[in-house]
Design a protein that fits this description.
This protein is of the alpha+beta class and 278 residues long. 66% of the residues lie in helices and 14% in strands. The radius of gyration is 52 Å and the shape is rod-shaped.
């Protein structure tokens, strides 16, 4: 019974160890890696917000609304230089109605952003961003050749929505570093979990082997004890039988001596009688 309970405990420990070994890689893949990506996106969003506010103060210090007429050819060159200096792939500037009044890509100029998020989120003062993986589609429906964070930063003048900046931050390097770090962490975790699991399996197996050996030794000891009791009982019986036989022999010997003594006495008496007659 005791060994059965111990076996049950060992099985429980083994199951818990297997689950714990599997939990770490699952945690890294499903929780840790996404949190890293989210951190990179938040950093890129914060950087885009600083850049957008800097550009708005630099190129639109006074207007209540961002307008195309306020952007000169010199300003456009400076905007392109600032974008290049900060490693930004693309910069777009929207008016409060969603018209593109400037873009580092000339094909975007004159277009209007009609997406719901622009009016329901950005125009109401909230920064809006999205991580776009390589060869995936942006919020505007374009396929990006690199990993980017697409960020919309609202610009307000005297508490009124004046327009917005759309900034594309290239996060390919950060994503690659993150991927390598996550891969190393995952490999280390899997290797450690595998080695730990092997150690636990070996320990549990050894413990069970020891339990089996202990049970076998206990059975052998019990059997030897039972055999010893049987041998003692048999020896005792043999001794009792021998004592009974010896007692019987002694009795027969005493009876024989008594008979011999009686016979000798009879012979002596008879001899005396014969001598007396003569």
């Amino acid at each position: 019974m005791k060994i059965r309970r111990t076996n049950h405990k060992l099985s429980t420990i083994l199951i818990i160890s297997i689950l714990a070994s599997l939990a770490m890689p699952i945690y890294i893949i499903n929780f840790l890696e996404p949190s890293f990506s989210q951190f990179v996106a938040q950093e890129a969003e914060a950087e885009a917000t600083l850049i957008a506010n800097h550009m708005s103060q630099l190129f639109f210090p006074n207007p209540k609304e961002l307008q195309e007429q306020t952007i000169t050819a010199e300003d456009q060159n400076k905007l392109a230089q600032v974008a290049q200096a900060f490693g930004i792939i693309k910069v777009k500037i929207y008016s409060s109605q969603g018209h593109v009044i400037y873009s580092t890509d000339p094909q975007d100029r004159g277009k209007t952003n009609t997406h719901k998020y622009f009016y329901d989120i950005v125009a109401k003062g909230q920064t809006f961003s999205k991580v776009v993986q390589k060869n995936h589609t942006t919020m505007e429906g374009r396929i990006m050749p690199v990993d980017v964070v697409e960020t919309y930063v609202p610009i307000f003048r005297k508490k009124s929505f004046a327009g917005a900046f759309e900034i594309y931050n290239d996060i390919t390097v950060e994503e690659n570093k993150l991927h390598q770090l996550s891969k190393k962490s995952r490999n280390i975790s899997i290797s450690f979990s595998f080695l730990l699991l092997l150690a636990i399996i070996f320990t549990v197996k050894q413990a069970r082997t020891n339990l089996v050996a202990q049970k076998r030794a206990e059975d052998e000891l019990r059997e030897a004890h039972d055999n010893l009791e049987l041998r003692v009982e048999k020896r005792t019986k043999d001794l009792n039988d021998l004592n009974s036989a010896l007692t019987k022999v002694e009795q027969e010997k005493a009876e024989l001596i008594e008979k011999l003594t009686k016979a000798v006495d009879e012979v002596k008496t008879l001899t005396r009688k014969v001598n007396g007659i003569n």
